[in-house]
Model the fold of this input.
Amino acid sequence: MKLKTIQWQALLACVCLSPLFADVTLAPAFSDNAVLQRETGVPVWGKADPKEKVTVTFKGQKKQTEADASGKWKVTLDKMPASADPAELTVKGNNEIVLKNIVVGDVWLCGGQSNMAWFVKDTLNASAEIAKSANPLIRHNAAPRRASSTPQDEIEMTGWQLAGPETTVLFTATGYYTARELQKDVKIPIGLLNISYGGTQVESWMSPKALQENPQYAKVKQRWEDILAAYPEAVKKYEGFKKKWESDRAQAKKDGKPFTRRAPAAPQGLGTRLEPSSLYNAMLYPSIPYAIAGILWYQGEANAARHDEYADLIQGMVKQWRADFGQGDVPFIYVELANLTRNVSTDPDKVSWAYQREAQRGALREPATGFASAIDIGESGNIHPKNKQEVGRRLALNALVLKYGRQIEAQGPAFAECKFEGNSAVVRFTHAEGMRLKDTQNTGFAVAGKDGVFHPAKAEVRGDSVRVWSDAVKNPTAVRHLFENDPPHVSLYNAAGLPGDAFRTDTFPQPTE
Done:
């Protein structure tokens, strides 16, 4: 008995003296089938025991490091050329991780709200598109919709998936169609890192530091404080609405009647998508600093009611994201809001989205930025237009110019200047080669005099300029083009088939929504 006790004590001592090894792990952006960014240093990082030695091996490279006191580690692989030849990436610490089928190409970060999140399965001709989508060199990795009040190191992502009939259905449609167009030209692997979340505002995608440094911070901060102050009362009202809804549903079921009324939406407070920085913390932060080629952005709808703030905010976000990923001024290309009929009761002047499109151009204050116009390919009654193929094509045109140096046209006729000559105005455009009007009567132009009342205008093309006039305005002082939520006529195009700028020359006060 005494011998057994001694043996157990010795065993216990061995257990207590043995180190408790933790498995080395990789950041969630890494998985089998990953695309690593070509022609730049590639950070690879994760967690391990404090002071644990970690070795990363890939394509003949061997990088070693030691986890810091908090257990975090990172190495940077040397620049590599694009390669579709699959290889293994090995991470070895106290344990070993082997990622298979890794290729090297260009990784595009896809961000925004529902129109970026929109699936391939919900686009035009979806069945045919999905059936022919097999392409092992287009790959997609998505973060789930999450929000957090504090930065998160980890999030459970889908993992990198190869495009094909079984997977493409749930790819970001905007990102997928962009990648498909790019691949036709660049012939290298394209990765899509998808962090989109429907119904989200731009300030939720910005870090606390970026917001605090932004000219619009005071407004953002005050609005959030007001929401938090009203939250307890909002919860009480919600609980009452929910109780009534449940009672009505139960009664309808008892009476054998259909019940289609939606359940009331819970108010959003701390840790929801409405909280500033919440999506940055939960969805973007875990993937920083994955090496990327550029950023595709489709967002703005959720900020349209506050368009006076958006230009500064989106510019701040562009600067912050670029700094976070540490790849320099990678291309940032956004989608301009598509045409859409808004609620007349909340937007009686029918111009709220026109001002938001104007505000979106705040991103263009930064270098290496561009946009894809969608003002002629939306659906008047659908905030999620299905023609994501053309959106992707137009984004790809921008990417081919900004990233790949192609000498092609990526923009429609762009406003340059306006001169007033008697009863008409002459508007000069850049990107005007082959400029034409599809309809000289329904032109999309409008002119106003000093009274600020706009009237539809006739127009004629003169080389790189367009003369516009209206019999109702003897001495025009202002011109607008497509400056409304849902322009009924888009007529001005260039030889590349891209629509002319939506713009205004006036500074008339913005209507209050």
